[in-house]
Amino acid sequence: MVLQRPRREDGARCERGQGRAAPAAGAAPVTAVEAAAATATATDPFYSYSGGAPLSSFAPGTVLASRTLQYHLLGIPSPVRAIQLLYRTTDAQGRPAANVTTVVRSPSGDGTKAVSYQSFYDSLDPADGPSRAIAGDVTFGGLIPNVEALVLVPLLTQGYDLVIPDTEGQRADFAAGPEYGRNTLDSIRAATRSAETGLGSATAFGLVGYSGGAIATNWAAALAPGYAPDVNRRLVGFAQGGLLVDPAHNLTYVDGSLAWSGVIPMAVIGVSRSYGIDLKQYLSGYGLEVYEELEQGSIVDALGRYPGLTWKKMAKPEYADPHSIPAFVEAMNTINLGSAPTPTVPGYVAQGDAGVLEGTFADPPGIGTGDGVMVAGDVRALARQYCATGNPAVKYSQFDLLSHAGVPVVWAPLALDWLNDRFAGRTAPSDCNRIPAGNSLAPEKPTSSS
Question: What pTM, to 2 d.p., does this model score?
Fold first, then answer.
């Protein structure tokens, strides 16, 4: 159950477009998540685009509305001011969408350097996004963006302005990497096009994120040269840890694990929602129960809740092999970073490999071990792939004695040091000749159902 209290309006200033766009003809029936998103929007109309022109008439990154409010921690307003922007972006299916990002100015910043920080809020509930936590909403899944203030404060104290996008969009399209990336890139565009933020065409950006935030960070870096070359020219690099690379491998790795097996139904729901695929038809009665329990849940709802859960337990007998569902395989391939372009800016990639500490004991052939939820061999393979395809400025760190929850303690200060060097113009280090071999990241192939 999600607990929420109304958002505080202390000192909030809001500027909005006029009128309301007409609904699209032949719209699909309202789903549970669309109803949830509509409810979340109803409690705070800032999230709903109400202009007369269709979203498709605006270029990605266009600012649609803005407001200034106090930065909240656990619902309590702080003296720090935040500027929130509603902007035009593109969802997982390539459709125009409106999303929200938050800009926080450093007390010592001058607008020349900024960090786009991608939160690891990992949720299927739109109300858990970082912008809502910053605005004062208090939800169970929204505790994560509040905890992340521990990472954000050091950045602000070192003069970095912050841009914090709701990477999953307003439908909470969990694990839809390409959408995460576009939301992030268009957030940067919006932040530099708003006169209120103090950021502009001369602002240099670094991308930073861990876990779910790493998904957004890496996809943004990979898509930037083609989708947002204007942003790519301003990027100094990307720093990430605990990365999801090949989702099909991850589902095999966490299958039957003690803590992370709840990621299986979250992935099923996320893929269904993001790409408009009805996966319920392949689920058993028990699978449908789990699906409904987590349909608006977050990672904090799923973590450790289904120990020993497997895909086989969730699926009908004839779909015990997920590869027997072609639409699911196609979606998994769509969000496989191994098939995405190579970033053209330096990268710092970190990964743990002590998943046994978090109850993941699997070591599947061709996949191997990881940090409990992310597969180390996949991350190594991606880093090596970048090295082999024109980007030698890749630093890779593997922490063999740390699990997914432990790596950030070590990674965060190292990432900040690495980032400081990039903004200072120092030559980026390369580990390309020292990264151990990884897994194949080739697209998965569907099989016939038995």
Answer: 0.91
